[in-house]
Write a structure and sequence with these properties.
This protein is α/β, with parallel strands linked by helices. It is built from 13 helices and 16 strands. 34% of the residues lie in helices and 19% in strands.
């Protein structure tokens, strides 16, 4: 990232967003090919919730990541790397008995038939998170608490923690939940569908891909998804290259329409020259939450989600430097015709997109 590095906000500063979940050391191949034939890997970091925290901090927000890592070299690297983005890591716990999770992946897109990911996360420090060892106040101090379905799949104690944080409670922050269905983490699809639906219904903002809603819930339309997840004030259904649609059930939106679902806003995605899709969903959530924190309307939130995702799509790592705020605001304010003509490729943000870490 060019310019002055973001400042790290300590425990005495109230965060805008707290993100809770597992982060791992990621090993990315130095060249294409199956894992068996890749001779070397570059070290990076990966984790849905920490990706969101890093992107929000890079965008100028006070972000805290809460997690658990081993008291090992990989844990040292994760904490240092996430802190380098300007994220508050003061609530991260070092576990002396469990290791930090790691994974290896191929250079291909996740949807590609040849894509491989090898996870080494069973029994990881993060899988030991529970309501007993994650203080409630450490994760509810911000305006927004961001969670994902990945955490719920790690262990019974992680599921109990996620359930506690999505349960109705007076004074809780705005709870954001990304469904993030990962089939390999769940023992059975039926269990995954039931649990993820329960958690989504308890959140205030929910992100779900139309493809994963079909895979985990068998739902084939955005209307069916909206009917199945009635609880959140904002339900965002991502449609891939087709854009995203947000169902706004806030009292203000309901007051302006006779539809019980409030208002539905669709924003097409700009055309993007894709380098890698890794981290794009997390970046979209970060862009949407950034605009939410700024009090922008739903259409602007969706556009900022698309722009942050485009930054991730046009760089090879999991986390990319977002466009500068003035640049993003200018693009998000384009009329519909001009927005439809956008075509974004590598370097479109005008800065070194991939934030390099120690």
């Amino acid at each position: 990232m060019t310019g002055t590095p973001p400042s790290v906000h300590g425990p005495g500063v109230t965060p805008d967003v707290v993100c809770l979940g597992e982060s791992m050391v990621a090993f990315l191949p130095t060249r294409p090919g199956p894992l068996a034939r890749v001779p070397a890997f570059d070290r990076a970091i990966g984790g849905a919730e920490s990706n969101v925290a890093c992107a929000l901090a890079a965008a100028g927000h006070r972000a805290r990541w809460v997690g658990r890592v081993g008291r090992d070299g990989f844990g040292d690297h994760l904490v240092e790397a996430i802190r380098a983005y300007g994220v508050d890591v003061s609530a991260v716990v070092r576990d002396p008995a469990r290791p930090t999770g790691v994974y290896f992946r191929t250079a291909t897109d996740r949807a590609d038939a040849g894509h491989e990911v090898a996870y080494y996360r069973a029994g990881s420090a993060a899988s030991a998170m529970s309501p007993e060892n994650v203080p409630y106040e450490s994760v509810t101090a911000g305006r927004v608490l961001h969670l994902s379905g990945i955490t719920a799949a790690l262990s019974d104690s992680c599921l109990a923690l996620t359930r506690e944080l999505t349960a109705p409670r007076t004074g809780r922050p705005l709870v954001s939940f990304d469904v993030n269905f990962r089939p390999g983490l769940w023992a059975g699809r039926e269990d995954a569908g039931r649990v993820l639906l329960e958690l989504a219904r308890g959140a205030d903002i929910v992100f779900v891909g139309a493809d994963e809603a079909r895979a985990v819930w068998g739902l084939k339309s955005t209307r069916a998804i909206a009917d199945a997840v009635p609880g959140p004030q904002l339900l965002v259904v991502k449609l891939g290259s087709g854009g995203a649609i947000a169902f706004d059930r806030s009292p203000e939106a309901r007051a302006g329409t006779a539809d019980a679902d409030g208002t539905a806003t669709h924003v097409p995605a700009p055309r993007v020259h894709v380098v890698s899709s890794a981290g794009a969903g997390d970046a979209f959530a970060a862009g949407f939450l950034s605009a939410t924190l700024r009090g922008l309307d739903v259409k602007a939130r969706l556009r900022h989600g698309h722009l942050m995702a485009a930054a991730a799509l046009t760089t090879p790592g999991d986390v990319a430097a977002p466009p500068r705020r003035a640049h993003a605001d200018r693009l998000a304010a384009l009329d519909d015709a001009a927005w439809g003509r956008l075509h974004l490729g590598p370097g479109w943000t005008g800065q070194d997109q991939e934030v390099r870490t120690p």
